[in-house]
Design a protein that fits this description.
single chain, 135 residues, mainly alpha
Length: 135
């Protein structure tokens, strides 16, 4: 039973990451670059390379989670990725910025919110358990 729950959690988070990555890829690098820049965390020169890599990193982690490959390491990487997203959102909210969530590209526009941070925290917790339990 416990293994089944871990598998469902791993696959569910993997699918969320895959859908989010696909939406960003379809929106294009300019959209992702503007999204990254809106958070005002990275220096301007860093937005372009981050925007080019981010959707593909998200997709790779999603694919590997769904496939169940390298689960311990990939679940930890997914937790780190989602934590970084959450920290970016929390920092933007704390600074009073109104920024787009960007989670699902243009297909599902929404503003960054504390609800988003909470949702990500649930996924981080799930991936942390998957990583620690091996699976």
């Amino acid at each position: 039973m416990e293994q089944a729950i871990l598998t469902v959690a791993r696959v569910a988070v993997g699918l969320v990451l895959l859908v989010a990555a696909a939406a960003k890829i379809m929106a294009g690098p300019r959209y992702v670059r503007e999204l990254v820049g809106a958070y005002r965390i990275l220096p301007g020169w860093a937005a372009r390379p981050v925007a080019r890599v981010l959707p593909w990193l998200e997709a790779a982690v999603g694919v590997l989670l769904v496939a169940g490959l390298f689960t311990v390491v990939v679940a930890a990487a997914g937790a780190a990725l989602l934590t970084s997203f959450s920290l970016a959102v929390a920092l933007a909210l704390r600074r009073g910025l109104t920024v787009p969530c960007g989670c699902f590209g243009r297909s599902r526009p929404a503003q960054a919110s504390w609800h988003l941070v909470g949702r990500n925290a649930v996924m981080v917790l799930a991936l942390a358990v998957v990583s620690l339990q091996g699976g």
